[in-house]
Design a protein that fits this description.
It contains 3 helices and 7 strands, in the order E-H-H-E-E-E-E-E-E-H. It is α+β, with helices and mostly antiparallel strands and about 140 residues long. Residues about 1-5 have low confidence and may be disordered.
Length: about 140
């Protein structure tokens, strides 16, 4: 789990992930190159095709929106294809939500994953990638 204070309101932050994920390519172009959408954007069952850079290597991921929770600004993305699966992980799920805090809000990323074997590392490098994107989104939106 990763927690990070955000300046941007939780509803706006959640809306970017849900309705405008392609904006991440302009917010953090060194991390995200593109996001293509299949299906109706922002609904359960929509499929997101990502091209991103992880540890200097071009990667891809295909995710399906599995769950949405407006009240808690929560989105669950299930990775169904791409570089994370196969050699590294049998399954990989990303859960993002916002938690109120006395002096602001916390952006919370949680991973649920099953490693292919015990020698596979924990996905800390992927968490670092999402931290960079989250901070980039926060800076980008608050500077507009």
């Amino acid at each position: 789990m990763y927690l990070d204070m955000i300046n941007l309101g939780g509803d706006l932050f959640y809306d970017i992930l849900r309705y405008k994920p392609e904006e991440l390519a302009s917010v953090a172009p060194d991390k995200v190159q593109s996001c293509d959408i299949e299906g109706q954007l922002g609904v359960v069952g929509s499929v997101l095709y990502w091209k991103y850079t992880l540890d200097g290597k071009k990667q891809t991921a295909k995710e399906v929106i599995e769950e949405l929770d407006e009240e808690n600004h929560k989105i669950v993305l299930n990775v169904i294809d791409g570089d994370l699966l196969g050699d590294l992980y049998k399954s990989f799920k990303l859960i993002y939500h916002v938690e109120p805090k006395s002096d602001g809000q916390l952006a919370v990323w949680t991973f649920e994953f099953e490693k292919m074997n015990t020698s596979v590392p924990y996905p800390t490098i992927f968490m670092d990638l999402l931290l960079g994107i989250t901070m980039g989104m926060d800076v980008h939106k608050t500077s507009q």
